[in-house]
Amino acid sequence: MTIDRLKKQVAPPFIKLKKSQENFFSRSLGFQAKLALAVALIPIIALTIWYANHVSSEQQRMHQAYVNNHQLILEFSSLKEDISALEKAQKNNHLLNSPALQNSIENKWKMTHKRIILLKNAIVETALVANWQQVLSLVPIYDSHLVSYKDLHNQLSTTEKLFHQALAMRLAAKRANISYANHWFVALLLILLPVFIMISLALIHRVTQQLYKVEHTLSRLGDGKYSGEIELHGSNELSKLGQKLSWLNDELQRSHAQKDSFLRHVSHELKTPLSSLSEGNSLLQSDDIGILNLQQQRIVTIMGTSLTRLNILIDDLLNYSAASHPLHQQKRKALNSLALDLQTQFGTHSLSHTKHIDWQISDSTEGLPYMPCKLILIQLINNALQYAKHKVQVSLSVQNHIATFSIVDDGVGIESSELAQLMQPFFRGQHSHSHSGSGLGLAIVEESVKQLKGNIQFNNVESGTHICVQFPVEGSQ
Hints:
Blueprint lengths: L1 H24 L3 H68 L2 H24 L3 H13 L10 H74 L13 H50 L8 H30 L8 E3 H11 L10 E6 L5 E3 H18 L3 E9 L2 E8 L31 H11 L3 E7 L2 E9 L5
Helix pairs in contact: 2-3, 2-5, 3-4, 4-5, 5-6, 6-7, 7-10, 9-10
């Protein structure tokens, strides 16, 4: 029972703290940034304001100390002049023996006595006060004939040194106060700046982490991984972006499903009647149903050509759809196995006396995405065979986790003005009008190369065209 009670007492504050943290981090990034900067900057600003006010007041005190010291120095100088003047007046009075002058001297000594007391009280320093006391003992108040001017001058000289030292010490104390404030300011600033930097780095790290989440999610959508939930938690902006990306994920998933369903229906609905039309056209071309006249043979030939083009177009559309499938869904085969399938498919060309395929294949056991690579090579080799005069050279290799497909033909080459449009679907160049095709071949190649995160280059060689495809294989990505 005691443990359960303890848990009940401890758990609620912890849960409340956790919920308060979640509520804080679920707010907008702008609010979090402002609050973090306020927490970091307010102490620095307060410290700066305190330092500025403190230094300003200390400078005012320092200025006042300079003024007071100057006045005290002037007062001390006046005191020395007055004593020298009294000494001369006393000597003159010995000759004149004037009662009025003597009375004036006595009054002057009384004023000098008061001035000494004021100077003594101005700086309360033990040694200096003791010296001033000795000076006062030598100053006559009632009988000026008893004064010893020599002793008085000597004592004033000693007192003057201590007096100037006391003034210098007072100024040094003021300077020490300013230096002390400077040291405190620097020390506190050195403490607060790392705190400010740590808070800024924590905020940057949090923003960066959220950007990494967004980047990872977008990369996942770009790779066609539409299954699974998109979870973006954190700031208000990130949560809203996560909701929009979830909607986009659902839309892309539905769109791809609709496209695959559409292509399946197209292949079924078009292939079935197309097969019947091809069989009917073959029957018309045979002699089983009778001999056709020239006009009928011409119509049947046009029908056969159109059916062949339609069949090629449907196959290219299906291949174009297959090329856009996500890379992680593709099965993999080694380069040698892929090359063997291609050599088998294009084996009939090796029997031709007009066009020959020269295969150059390096040994590699690394697995390559089978369908994109096969589509790339089939389309490029088919194009090369159509335009080549005598020979097509096919080089396949994998080195340093980079796959390279190189196809070189000795045909007419590619017009430089057509390079920008070459990869567009259904585009056919000026040299392609005498050849059959749908204009989707290079578009299929481009889509497959994108899936492989590679690049393709077209170069006109001395006689013909050189096409090079390169992409990273799994393990280097």
